[in-house]
Amino acid sequence: MNQNPEQIARDKIDEMLREAGWLVQSKRKVDLSTGKGIAVREYQTDVGPADYVLFVDRKPVGIIEAKREDEGHRLTVVEEQSSNYANAKLKYLNNDPLPFVYESTGTITRFTDYRDPKPRGRNVFSFHKPETIAEWLKKEKSLRERLLSIPALDETGLRPAQIVAINNLEHSFKKNRPKALIQMATGAGKTFTAATFVYRLLKHADAKRILFLVDTKNLGEQAEQEFMTFQPNDDNRKFTELYNVQRLSSSYIASDSQVCISTIQRLYAILKGEELDESAELENPNENSWLQNKMSKNKAVPVEYTPKVPIEQFDFIVIDEAHRSIYNLWKQVLDYFDAFLIGLTATPDKRTFGFFNENVVSQYTYEESVTDGVNVPYDVYTIETEISQKGEIIKAGWFVDRRDKLTRKKRWQQEDEDTEYKRNDLDKKVVNPSQIRNIIREYKKALKTTIYPNRIDENGDYEVPKTLVFAKTDSHADDIIKIIREEFDEGNDFCKKVTYKIEEDPKSVLNRFRNSYYPRIAVTVDMIATGTDVKPLEVLLFMRDVKSINYFEQMKGRGTRTINSDSLQLVTKTAKTKTHFVIVDAVGATKSKKTDSRPLERKPSVPMKDLLGAVTMGVADEDLFLSLANRLIRLEKQITEKEKDRLLEFSGGKNLKQMTAALITAFDQDVIETKAQIEIDKIPVQDQTPALIEDAKKNAQEQLILEASKTFNGELNSYLDNVRKQHEQIIDSVNIDTVTKSEWETTSVDKANEIVKDFTEYLEANKDEIKALSIFYNQPYNRRDITFKMIKEVMEKLRMDKPLLTPHLVWDAYTQVENVTLSGVEGSKQPKDELTALVSLIRRACGIDSELKAYDKTIENNFKTWIFKQNAGQHNRFTKEQLDWLRMIKDHVVSSYHIAWDDLDYTPFDAKGGKGKMHQLFGNQMNDIINELNEVLAA
Questions:
Q1: pLDDT (average), residues 541-547
Q2: Which residues contact 901 (CB under 8 A, 6 or more apart)?
Q3: Which of 268, 222, 778, 757 is nearest to 514 (CA)?
Q4: 41 and 87 Cβ atoms separated by less than 8 Å
Q5: 569 CB contacts (<8 Å, ≥6 apart)?
Q6: Is the whole model's pTM more than 0.70, yes or no?
Q7: What angle do CA 707, 711, 712 make, to 5 degrees?
Q8: H/E element holding 414?
Q9: pLDDT of 824
């Protein structure tokens, strides 16, 4: 009780050393054979006694300079003093300088490895284990020195942005920067980039173990798949054949794992010595408002040293989606480990830059990724309805259905008063099927006429592009799915829900959505809003608003992925290529005000869902337990007997009163003392010290907290959260909605005009350099001489100079700004291939055609007109066999834009007799007909 500050610090340091596996001995009772790691206090050196000298396997390896707690701010000043002890000669020993040096107050600890190039001290959570130091000494060089000799990157198969990110990151490592941030647009290959540099760190820097940290189970599974499929350039084996990858599903970390994948909430639970229910890994913990409110008041539940997971467990930690869940409570997990931190994110905010010490090693924005062709751009199509914008009134006296939210059971009721509902009440208090139906009906119509009108299959049926719908709740998703199936005249397979709560395996449904023809439309609430890769997606339909700008950007990112044409056509047969995706905004999500969702801006009211989630996470806080107990007391008075019985199935037989009592007693001092006294009474009176009594109370409370919290799990939480909400929704089937707006967003039209302008200006600028363009612009009478090779030359130059201006993208842009005529019918059905589309676009841009027409259809029409004139003037001039040959010539011009005399020696003409046969059929008119067709068809 009367210890001075120095003695208090020494006691704390002794305890930290013991936890890390060191035996602490006084200089008078040294016995280096009693353990692997020995810390000897006050060991004499030739410059005075060192506070602690560390021995591993009987050999001196390091020193600790101890200071009292209020000198924590001076530890960097102490480095010279501790360095002097490390370089001194120890009594009785002719030792070399000791490489491992610590300065510690017991609260703050700094560490320097003097084997490093340019040794630099760093804060550490605790001391390293003796076994770790023994491993370090077996290696000739320290990790930071090994990083200096990483060989140059083999850039094969990597995109330019990935090359920059990896090279700059490794440069940052060589400079011993502890944190680095890679900002890379969604869809640009962040995880592939990570797999590449993780492989290099394991192979070339001999890293022991690397952690890939995520904040949802879904992201962890995706990362695992990426490592399983990753194959390095310098080895024909897969990553998982070379290194052990373990995705954590319990607190066990395999000793031979070289890459660990874990959610941050699981790692937090491990450091708290607790098991974690998998349900706590389904949602991003940063969205839990209780935790954020508590953390904003600096009441973080501290992690403690965990011997089975020492601070040196990982050499590197890769933090995926680093903008979300690494602050406040969760920051402790990262502060615990003595590791390099690498952040990966598409959408950082100010906190992210601050956390990573503003060491942004590469920035690759969405706009840059679109320009490079790594991602695709998007257009916005707006659908508005009367009720979506203004709400409605359900009049007294009307008969309406009321639906139980959980069972979906309906009852009919005559309303006894007016009920007015606003747009924000939709799909919560009130469901208006007509509002959902009109949005879906209008979406179907817009798809066929405006958004993707060129999707008619060989049977004449419209093929719906892969569409992801964002719904507000599971109940809302069910309503949307039912109406989509009805409005599209399709069955169950056509439209599926993809959330964590569906009866089917959500991963199986997601894989089918990604790789198979069905489902065409998926509806999600949470599972694929962020981080999930579905490359064939072409439409995002927003039927829920989002206030967080980062979350919204992540949701948009679901559509940005590029995909090659062959892979796209495996799931969407009528798609030529993915040039862009479309956001269909039915709720104003693209216009609503967004915030960066910082915790300090959150409202103090906490949803019950977040209280339940925090308890499940193992958070033990009196405010939390009492808040939840209060909610459960209220709930117990509201729910029905049938609902109480159902609850027992999820709670292991505990009712709400029992759960509430357990939560309250966990912080009831009388109960704690009574429980502790039972254990104290088992100890002889002479041994009952104050410290022991306090430990008994602490252990008793920990048992009560565990008993109270272990009842809560994902299924129970979901049931409690749903059952406590308003039991019924009013189904307003009386008020019929109407569409008030259905059009491209102004910005999309402006963007389309910009694309058309950019394309036209490019052609103008190159019309004197590229032969085909010169003919189109300057010698239109020579169009008959344009060949396939010339058009290929234009295409290759365009791809090199303007990779974003693909013919299909420019074509789609034209359809937004003017009528596109196809065989006299308005529409935008694209030509059969890019080269044919390019010819059509060139003819429109240089003024040959007054409106955009599919060139293959132009040739067809010109051919029909010419044949009609020939036959009309000379009374069926051509025989059937001659007509067949003329059609072959026309088909050749459709694909090659020109026919030459020598082409008759090749397919398909050679099989029909070639030049000789044509001469036999047309005689001396043969050359005239070839020249005439070249001129007429290209007109």
A1: 88
A2: 915, 927, 930
A3: 222
A4: no
A5: 575
A6: yes
A7: 125
A8: strand 410-414
A9: 39
According to DSSP, the residues that pair with 820 across neighbouring strands are: 852
| Whole-number Å distance between alpha carbons of 662 and 640 | 22
C-alpha count within 13 angstroms, C-beta hemisphere, residue 593: 0
3-state secondary structure of 472: coil
Do 217 and 267 form a contact (C-beta atoms < 8 A)? no
Q: Please tell me the distance from the alpha carbon of residue 153 to that of residue 167, in angstroms, as a whole number.
A: 7
Rounded to 5°, angle at Cα 394 from 388 and 398: 140
Contact 561, 540 (CB under 8 A): no
Residue recorded with tokens 């216009």: 591
As given in the structure block, the two tokens for residue 242 are 């070379």
At 23 the three-state DSSP class reads: strand
3-state DSSP of 838-905: HHHHHHHHCCCCCCEECHHHHHHHHHHHHHHHHHHHCCCCCCHHHHHHHHHHHHHHHHHCCCCHHHHH
Q: Is 212 left (phi over 0), alpha (psi -120 to 50) or beta?
A: beta
Closest CA to 467 of 528, 397, 411, 523: 523
In terms of Cβ atoms closer than 10 Å to its own Cβ (0-12, 13-18, 19+), residue 173 is: buried
Element spanning 420, H or E: strand 419-421
Neighbour tally for 594: CB within 10 Å: 17
Contact 288, 265 (CB under 8 A): no
Put residue 373 in one of left, alpha, beta given phi > 0 → left and psi -120 to 50 → alpha. left
Structure tokens belonging to residue 115: 């084997």
Could you write out the three-class secondary structure of 58-113? CEEEEEEEECCHHHHHHHHHHHHHHHHHHHCCECCCCCCCCCEEEEECCCCEEEEE
Residue 150: what are its φ and ψ, rounded to 5°?
-65, 130
Side-chain-side CA neighbours of 338 within 13 Å: the count stands at 24
Structure-token match 């397919």, residue found: 907
Angle, helices 834-845/788-801, rounded to nearest 10 degrees: 80
Which of 276, 97, 176, 147 shows the shortest CA–CA distance to 709? 276
- In angstroms, the CA 193 to CA 751 distance is 31
Predicted confidence (pLDDT) per residue in 378-399, tens digit: 889 999 999 999 999 998 888 8
- The angle at the Cα of 751, spanning 746 to 754, to the nearest 5 degrees, equals 130
The C-alpha torsion from 382 through 386 and 388 to 390, rounded to 10°, is 130
Task: Say which residue the tokens 């029905």 belong to.
Answer: 640
CA distances from 98 to 61, 101, 147 (A): 5, 8, 22
Token pair 């996470």 is found at 617
pLDDT tens string 489-528:
999 999 999 876 666 777 788 889 999 999 999 999 876 6
Read off the tokens for 561.
């992925």
- How many whole angstroms separate alpha carbon 891 and alpha carbon 899? 10
DSSP state of 426: B
| Structure confidence at residue 436 as a pLDDT band (50, 70, 90) | very high
Nearest by Cα to 523 from 508, 505, 511, 540: 540
Contact present, 285 and 330 (Cβ < 8 Å): yes
Strand partners, 375: 561
- Summary mean pLDDT of the chain: 86
For 462, which DSSP code?
B
Residues 6 or more apart whose Cβ sits within 8 Å of residue 327: 286, 295, 351, 355, 599
Question: In whole angstroms, what is the distance from residue 528 CA to residue 407 CA?
Answer: 25
Look at the block and give the residue holding tokens 């002719």. Answer: 94
Sheet bearing 48-56, strands edge to edge: 23-26, 37-45, 48-56, 59-66, 100-104, 109-113, 122-124
Q: What are 916's two structure tokens?
A: 């000789």
| Dist. CA 701–CA 343, nearest whole Å | 38
Q: What's the pLDDT at 812?
A: 81
Query: pLDDT at residue 532 above 80?
Result: no
